[in-house]
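Duplicate of #3305? Posting structure anyway:
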């Protein structure tokens, strides 16, 4: 009997071996983005912007145009591209240290202006590339290389809930949070990306999808333990859901 192909690499990704750590969510997010763009027949009109951090490796894997921005400045570069080339689908792909710390001013103002870009935000609660330091999304009490006794919120503040924060701005038309550690959640994550890209194509304003992601290497655990940490700890601080949806036929 001739074997039946049930799954193959999307043409939205290059045929290369990943450099991401085992369990990392970036690769899952990359695949979902690429699949959606192929389904939209949008590979040829897409431009992604990647920053410093683990997110920067995206251009090694995506089979569509990608450029790099200085640390935290990804929304500013994406804004410029979209304004010059308004027919393109422009993606700002960012990690939590990049977006919520170094680039907080850029993301807030781009969202507040209602820039017609889509942000894919990977939240793994630490600075991944540079050694696992505390990020604005680090959980209360979480051990990192710069909080060896756990994050003390009386000294460093509380974890930033970016999806909820940006949902309060009038320029934001879609804001949601998904997760990447279970098959069912991955399917839902894809639908969030589809909605966010649809908002951009409708030209109504800014859209963002935040993904809670594993980082076993810097969390100092194996992949199964990292999944447990997400379920037990991260989703309490970062609940999943759609916080704003103003697409056609969506809810206000």
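Output from current build:
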């Amino acid at each position: 009997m001739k074997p039946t192909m049930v799954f193959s690499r999307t043409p939205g990704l290059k045929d290369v071996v990943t450099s991401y750590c085992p369990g990392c969510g970036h690769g899952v997010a990359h695949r979902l983005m690429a699949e959606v763009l192929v389904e939209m027949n949008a590979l040829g009109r897409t431009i992604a912007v990647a920053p410093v951090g683990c997110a920067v490796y995206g251009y090694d894997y995506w089979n569509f145009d990608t450029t790099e921005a200085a640390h935290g400045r990804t929304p500013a570069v994406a804004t410029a591209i979209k304004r010059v080339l308004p027919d393109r689908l422009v993606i700002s792909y960012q990690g939590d240290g990049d977006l919520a710390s170094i680039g907080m001013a850029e993301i807030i103002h781009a969202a507040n202006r209602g820039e017609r870009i889509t942000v894919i935000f990977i939240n793994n609660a630490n600075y991944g590339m540079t050694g696992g330091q505390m990020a604005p999304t680090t959980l209360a009490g979480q051990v990192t290389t710069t909080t060896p006794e756990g994050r003390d919120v009386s000294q460093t503040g509380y974890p930033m809930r970016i999806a909820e924060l940006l949902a309060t701005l009038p320029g934001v038309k879609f804001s949601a949070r998904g997760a990447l550690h279970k098959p069912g959640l991955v399917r839902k994550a894809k639908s969030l990306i589809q909605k966010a890209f649809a908002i951009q194509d409708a030209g109504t304003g800014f859209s963002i999808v935040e993904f809670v992601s594993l980082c076993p290497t810097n969390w100092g655990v194996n992949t199964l333990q990292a999944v447990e940490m997400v379920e037990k700890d991260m989703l309490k601080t970062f609940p999943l859901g759609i916080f704003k949806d103003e697409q056609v036929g969506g809810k206000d």
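Confirmed duplicate; merging threads. The chain has a mean pLDDT of 94. The first helix runs from residue 26 to 39.
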